[in-house]
Amino acid sequence: MVRSSLTLFFFFFFSFVLVALGRAGAQDNADGAATESTVGFCESENRFSGGLDCTQFVTGTAEEAKEACAQGLTMPSVAGSFTEGARCPLYLDKIRLGGECERQLESGLVVRSVLEFDEDSPFASCSGLENVCTTFIQGQWKPASACGGGGDSDSSPDLPAPSETEPTSEEEKEVGGVPANSPELAAEVETLADGFDFTEGPIWIPSQGADPSLPPSTLLFSDMRRNVIYSWSNATGLGVYTNESMGTNGKAFDLDGQLIGFRSGPRNVARGADPKNATVLAGGYEGKSFNSPNDGAVSPKDGSIFFSDPIWGILARPEEEQELDLHGVFRIDADGNVVTLELNNLAMPNGIAISEEGDTLFVSDTGGLPIHPNPKLASDEPPPTLTAWALEEGSKVNQTPVPIWSREDFSDGMCLNERGLWSTRSGMGPSIYGPKGLVLTNPSTGQEIGHIEIEDPTNVECHTEEEGVLYVTTASKVVKVTLLE
Fold first, then answer.
1. Whole-prediction pTM value?
2. Which of 17, 172, 338, 392 has its Cα between 20 and 30 A from that of 123?
3. Which of 52-66, 395-409, 410-424 reaches the highest mean pLDDT?
4. Which of 274, 180, 293, 280 is nearest to 220 (CA)?
């Protein structure tokens, strides 16, 4: 029984986006409407970029805004500096001002995240900024003139929206083996539950063979922002499995049917049905704590556990330092006694899956970041990739680090079944990588077979005991996918 799950950590991914993109805030036309906001703005350090995020206050008093700024707006516990009666500096640069994203804080104050446009960055393109706003900030997107919105024509040139280049023929535009005109697969998509903050890590508990303390024939999934693991089944509908998820993101079963959790909270990998009382298998490497275990899978050959270790979890906890000088993929032996570093030259490893034969490891990497501890990867230049690695006997990555195949793709969680490799192409990814949604790939060649349109997918479970049925988590809901062919 092999499972894989997860991807980018919800709020931390939102923080990453603000970092890679620019600033912080949200509503109305970015070029003109901001002039009505004179409460002030909040600037805070962005741990991803090393720059500053700027949030414009639209409502409230200066004292209320100053208090909110001190508590942290774009990242929890990261206090900002408040400037009264002024506007974010980016408003003065009509070329770089991409737009605003308006949202309401729990206190009732309305703020606008001021987002910077950069045509050379896939995350800061106009479509990328809109995705950040609607998906991760969960606000209302208002583009500036640089992104095709209205503006003050007297104070800035009337700039056309930068084109998001699309292929003009079936022969045109193929990126790393991914056809931009990927055919749509016939499927029915049904929403099972909605209204979540950010769901991740779906796993189906089978009717037989799993830990008997787990609910059979039930889907478990996490809401990362709420720190809750939910359950869903045909018999009982939606329920709360635990209110203390310990930051469990990805989930998998070991060969004995025990639940394995990859946990960004305590920064470890643990075994057990109850996250609070689970047995910790590993919490670090060579005397240093893991960054933020994210997603993982278990080898069907020997029960060893592979998992990705990016830094999403600790970015929102500035009191916790990154101890490792890499973002890697690690392996824990079946007994939990030995931890080995299998892949270390990755920018931001995310989704993990293993073939049912146990001979191939699939890893998604969401690309370079300015704060990567490896100077060679400390930029946004290394592209996002989806890669297949050969596993040698003993379930170790082939020591000649040449992949079976690799393509540029912005993928999150994934899984494999008899139809192929299913991955979740995030709404954050540039359109050049192909249509967004649930993507089916030939696991032997890396060639994309087709896709199913799903908004903002984060992870997928394809071992469900129902023919042609998959479960997909998204930014705000969980859906059931029934294949029609």
1. 0.76
2. 172
3. 410-424
4. 274
